[in-house]
């Protein structure tokens, strides 16, 4: 059977019962082939059955000859099919004249091997020119130095996309109208006289019409108009640039609504009055019932938090620079930095004299006599710890048995133990001044803040654990999260930096919130809140959620700016502290 499908792929008829069509358009059914059992029987009965192959395109069986089998064998064995060279091929006879002509035309002519006479003349001309020292370089195309129109080739390149930018044609000049004609039609003159607009009426009264162009005088505004036209061509953009328009709301991150993050401090509800000078430091007791404040009027006061009533007052002979309450519940000990000493006392016990100047005087005398060998002095249940320099800051450990002090200039840090009444220098004399110190919440680690770095020291192993970089931001105060792995640092440039120690040694987030130096920062112990105070008399309250999942970063949301303070001696808010249980 001949092929009835032509060059149509055979795969198109694989799933069909027919293969092609006859001359009358009827389907040609496929040949019914033997199944596997009949195929096996044919192989057993017919010895030459293995020579038969199936031609799918012709739909028939073919029997291979001995020469075809030999050719397949040699091809499969990677051999040369030499039997092709032995076959006799019939060629058409070619006339002798044609063959001779073909052979003659295929030869190269002899003149191609002889040097050309014209090439020799050209070479001779070049040699003579070189001897005469004449320039043999080709002449360049001379560029006309006359001014060119920058929009002259606009129509030629109008359809081209130059540097992937849209082409803009030159702005067209305004076409002249009857208003610019020296001899407009009569109808237009009547319109000018009947137009109620005063501008056109005044202009028509000052116009002159002429019968011939030769009597028209020179146009006085010709130079000005040409100059304006040149400015239009020069200032008009020749290329349309696609500007990326980004709205400010699209750049800002998606933050929750502050109203959904309540409760947080939003307004002033109580004012504690009584100090005669600025308050330098405050501290809240662990129960949240009492507030301690130290002032530049050399006094320390104890306040009732809920009522604002001053319960007790201690008067010293020097400025109280820092006060702090022992964080251990049930241990009523408060500390105050007064001059060169740290005063430890029980705020609930009535003293014989509220004036503690005599205790400090006797402590200074003992320090001068014995040096630093006996820094502790106790009298009337008042403990005075002497230092060789003025004390600037005191901070307590969570257990309540240790507290650290920082002297003026930040040269060294001392750790004191109440149970043994001992003091210890943890460093040698430091060249870089230390601005703030703080204990870790759960591990024996101390945070030490300098102007450019925050150091984490392991007090038990006496080694440096980590070093945090500020990125050029001058730092002055520090506060730690309740978990201990996140800290906030305030700088003298008004920037507040959040450090995630599990993430990096660089700030995770830097917030430029204040206009002046930051004086104090604080974390809430129960709620995800933290705050910063500055010399610009503002208090910024933030929401800071630290997730337990390490793959999720901390969420920081600005909540409120409190502006109920007034400046005093070019200073604003100096310290801040959260209530231990309430969201304020």
Proportion of beta-strand residues: 25-35%
Poorly predicted tracts of residues: 84-104, 153-162, 197-204, 369-374
Radius of gyration, rounded? 51 Å
**Strand arrangement across the biggest beta sheet:** 11-12-13-15-14
- The percentage helix is 10-25%
Shape: extended
Roughly what is the average pLDDT, rounded to an integer? Answer: 79
Structural class assignment: alpha+beta
Distance between the termini: 100 Å
Main sheet properties: 5 strands, antiparallel
Tell me how many strands there are.
Answer: 31
How many separate helices? 10
Question: How would you describe this structure to a colleague?
Answer:
This protein is of the alpha+beta class and 584 residues long. Helix content is 17%, strand content 28%. The protein has 10 helices and 31 strands. The strands form 9 sheets. It has a 5-stranded antiparallel beta sheet with strand order 11-12-13-15-14, with helices on one face. A 4-stranded antiparallel beta sheet has the order 7-8-9-10, with no helix packed on it. Strand 26 and strand 27 form a beta hairpin. The two termini are 100 Å apart.
């Amino acid at each position: 059977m001949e092929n009835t499908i032509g060059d149509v792929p055979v795969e198109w008829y694989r799933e069909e019962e027919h293969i092609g069509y006859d001359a009358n358009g009827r389907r040609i059914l496929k040949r019914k082939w033997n199944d596997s059992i009949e195929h096996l029987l044919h192989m057993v009965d017919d010895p030459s059955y293995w020579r038969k192959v199936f031609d799918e395109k012709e739909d028939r069986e073919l029997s291979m000859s001995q020469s075809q089998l030999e050719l397949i064998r040699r091809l499969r064995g990677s051999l040369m099919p030499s039997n092709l060279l032995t076959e006799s091929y019939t060629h058409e006879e070619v006339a002798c004249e044609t063959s001779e002509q073909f052979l003659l035309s295929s030869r190269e002519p002899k003149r191609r091997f002889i040097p050309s006479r014209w090439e020799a003349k050209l070479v001779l001309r070049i040699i003579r020119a070189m001897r005469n020292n004449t320039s043999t370089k080709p002449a360049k195309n001379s560029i006309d130095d006359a001014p060119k129109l920058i929009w002259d080739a606009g129509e030629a390149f109008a359809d081209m996309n130059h540097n992937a930018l849209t082409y803009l044609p030159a702005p067209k000049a305004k076409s002249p109208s009857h208003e610019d004609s020296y001899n407009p039609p009569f109808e237009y003159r009547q319109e000018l006289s009947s137009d109620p607009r005063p501008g056109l009426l005044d202009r028509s009264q000052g116009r002159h019409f002429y019968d011939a162009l030769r009597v028209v005088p020179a146009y006085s505004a010709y130079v000005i108009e040409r100059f304006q036209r040149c400015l239009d061509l020069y200032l008009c953009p020749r290329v349309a640039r696609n500007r990326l328009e980004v709205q400010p709301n699209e750049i800002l991150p998606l933050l929750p609504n502050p109203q959904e993050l309540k409760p947080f401090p939003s307004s002033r509800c109580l004012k504690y009055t009584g100090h005669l000078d600025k308050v330098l430091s405050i501290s809240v007791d662990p129960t949240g019932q009492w507030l301690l404040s130290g002032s530049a009027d050399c006094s320390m006061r104890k306040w009732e938090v809920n009522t604002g009533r001053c319960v007790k007052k201690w008067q010293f002979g020097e400025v109280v620079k820092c006060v702090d309450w022992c964080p251990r519940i049930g241990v009523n000990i408060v500390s105050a930095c007064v001059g060169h000493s740290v005063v430890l006392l029980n705020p609930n016990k009535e003293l014989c004299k509220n004036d503690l100047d005599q205790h400090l005087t006797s402590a200074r005398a003992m320090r001068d006599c014995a040096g630093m060998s006996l820094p502790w002095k106790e009298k009337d249940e008042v403990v005075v710890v002497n230092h060789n320099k003025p004390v600037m800051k005191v901070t307590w450990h969570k257990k309540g048995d240790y507290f650290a002090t920082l002297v003026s200039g930040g040269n060294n840090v001392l750790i004191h133990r109440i149970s043994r009444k001992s003091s210890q220098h943890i460093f040698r004399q430091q060249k870089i001044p230390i601005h703030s110190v703080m204990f870790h919440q759960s591990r024996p680690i101390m945070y030490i803040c300098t102007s450019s770095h925050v150091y984490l020291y392991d007090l038990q192993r006496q080694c440096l654990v980590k070093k945090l970089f500020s990125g050029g931001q001058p730092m002055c105060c520090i506060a730690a999260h309740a978990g201990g792995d996140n800290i906030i640092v305030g700088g003298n440039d008004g920037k507040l930096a959040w450090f995630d120690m599990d993430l990096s040694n660089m700030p995770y987030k830097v917030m430029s919130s204040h206009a002046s130096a930051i004086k104090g920062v604080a974390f809430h112990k129960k709620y995800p809140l933290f705050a910063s105070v500055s010399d610009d008399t503002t208090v910024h309250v933030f929401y800071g959620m630290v997730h337990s999942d390490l793959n999720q970063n901390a969420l920081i949301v600005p909540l409120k700016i409190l502006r109920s303070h007034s400046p005093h001696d070019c200073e604003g808010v100096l310290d801040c502290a959260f209530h231990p249980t309430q969201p304020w």
